[in-house]
Amino acid sequence: MNKQESFLKYLDNQMTDFEKQELEKLIECNREANQLCEEVKRRKEDTLKHLECLNPELPIEVPSLENIIGIPES
Q1: Domain segments of the chain: what residues?
Q2: CA-to-CA dists, residue 73 to 32, 46, 53, 70, angstroms
Q3: What gap in Å lies between CA 52 and CA 54, rounded to an integer?
Q4: What is the rounded distance in angstroms from the CA atom of residue 12 to the CA atom of residue 38?
Q5: Which of 19, 43, 54, 59 is a Cys-bridge partner for 15, taking CB atoms 3.0 to 4.6 Å apart?
């Protein structure tokens, strides 16, 4: 597992307590790891924000094809 995957598991609370402690030590002691973790966190938040538009609060109404191209309804 690479560091990005580890950070995602950490952010999603999918690690054991031991794994969390080890990763937190790494983030605390290693500046590059800390920056990468923050970048992964930001990208995850951005992705979730963009995915929200796929679940609109109100239903989307699609007009009938007849109304769009001018075919009279029968």
Answers
A1: 3-54
A2: 64, 44, 33, 9
A3: 5
A4: 14
A5: 19
Selection from 31, 35, 47, 46 nearest residue 7 by Cα: 35
> pLDDT of 8-55, one tens digit each?
999 999 999 999 999 999 999 999 999 999 999 999 999 998 888 787
Amino acid identity, position 71: I
Beta strands in 1-74 (DSSP E): none
DSSP assignment letter at 13: T
The pTM of the full predicted model, rounded to 2 decimals, is 0.67
* Size of the chain in residues: 74
Alpha-carbon span 63 to 43, nearest angstrom = 36
